[in-house]
Structure formats: C-alpha cells, structure tokens
Amino acid sequence: MDANIYSQIKTSIKHRLKIDLENYKDEQMRRRLDSWLVRTRANNWDDYFNLLSSNSDELERFRNYLTINVTEFFRDANRWNALKEEILPYLLRDSGGTHELKLWSAGCSIGAEAYTLAMMMAEVAPLRKYSLLATDLDRGALHKARSRGPYTQDDIRNLSMTQRQKYITPVSPYYVSESLQKNIRFEEQDLLAAHFDSDFDLIICRNVVIYFTTEAKDKLYAKFCAALRPGGILFMGGTEIISGPAKYGLQNFGISFYKKI
Prior knowledge:
This protein is α/β, with parallel strands linked by helices. The protein folds into 2 domains: 3-66, no CATH class; 77-260, 3-Layer(aba) Sandwich (Rossmann fold), CATH 3.40.50. The protein is built from 10 helices and 7 strands. Strands 3-2-1-4-5-7-6 form a 7-stranded mixed beta sheet. Strand 4, helix 10 and strand 5 form a beta-alpha-beta unit. The longest helix has 18 residues, at 77-94. The chain is globular, with a radius of gyration of 19 Å.
C-alpha cells in the first residue's frame, strides 16, 4: 500500500468511523488494512468503501477490527500478582479505610481485565467499596464485556480452580458471575479524543499504547497523569515502558507501575 492510498484510507476511516489512524503506527496499521482487504475479497478500497456505505453490519465489523483486541484473564500473571501483593495494599493504606477506591480499566476490550481486577478486589479487600470504570472503542468487545461473556478456555486459562469455581460458569461457553459485575460500569470511549474523569486511584491500560505513535503516547500519558489523584497508580503493559516519566508527572513504582508525583 503506497502513501497516497493510505492517506486516502485514513481520511475515509476518520469520516465514516470517527477513528483517527494518525495516532497509530503506520507500518502496523497498513499491514492490518492489507490483511482486511484480502479477507473481504473486495477488488480494491473504493469498492470496499462503497460496500460500507450500504452495509451497516460490515461497517461495524470493520470498526471492531480496527480497534485491536488481544486479552485474557490475568494476562502476564506475574504483573497481576505484583498488583495484588504490593500495589493494592499500598492503595488501600494510602487512601484511608473509608475512601471508596476509584478504578479504571482503559482499553478494557472484552472485559477480561476489568473482571480480573474485580476478582482481585474481592480477594484482597472484600469489604472495601470501590467503583470500576471499564472503557473501550470496540462496541463488539464492549457488548461481550457487558454480557459477561462468552469466554473461551484460552481466555480463562490463567484462573485458579478456586477462581473458576467461584466466578465462572462450570461448562463452556464460559460466563462470569453477576456478582463480579456489580461494581463495573462499561462505556464506549476513544482514549485520545475523550475527556477523562479525575481522582482515580488506579488506572490500568495494558497493551494498548504499543500501537500508538510517539506523539499519541505523549498525549495519553499526560492525560492519564491528570486523571490520577496524587499518589495514584498507572499500570502499563510489560513492554510499554515510559521513558522519562517525570515529564508527565509520574515516577517509577516497580516494573509496569508508575505513581503520580
């Protein structure tokens, strides 16, 4: 795909789907678009965009494809264990005994991350009040999250037997329990365009910014910092290292974790 065609595609996508591909790395997105066009069996992008004009279902499928989702419960289990053993106890102490924790799973995909955090809160602080906002741009993923599934065996492979028995339906297709969803609010959101709420104790945004340009990352890190309360924690993916976090008002707080100064 040459630069002129890619530029035209970006303009069409921004107009039709309200997704700005300028924020995504060119090489990765071009590969995804080339792969999608082959999959649709359209002759060219002009034909495909003509199809989108008359087929709302295809438009929604394309939209969901562009919002990249790779997730599972307790993905990178050692980092989640650090959250359980170190970060949550710190937040519970730092916020005081009666403060309702304000949590956010940003780029929550199909909800596995948000439900993982809900499980962890039930285990670490079962009596502590909290609210959990879970947001994503992918409407299909959000529908699955709100519906509590269905999830596959691969999705739940990192759950312990105790967690499966307590929170997951016993046979496939798997759904999480209604009790796990009670503190979670799922909302559609474009991270780079939206205005964020404030005073979050914990923001989890894992394996999302790896697809963004440097400029988009800079913007998002600054927005995340502004959304945290002083002392609040940002939990990133294992390969998403923030270089020079102090310029965003953050400091390292262990591998994958950053604290608002």
